[in-house]
């Protein structure tokens, strides 16, 4: 098997990668799945650690 040269997405598709950097996202309990709930709990725990 030949090794493929690693390329970033910009080089492969010739389009910039869209980023959600600094994008506000609203949390909805009704639409949340298990991963969303876990992520929210982890974020809240991290916030509490920072407040110490």
Automatic annotation (TrEMBL):
Domain of life, source organism: Bacteria
Ranges of compositional bias, category Basic and acidic residues: 37-52
Residue segments, region Disordered: 1-52
InterPro entries: YfhD-like
One Pfam family hit: YfhD
Name of the protein: YfhD family protein
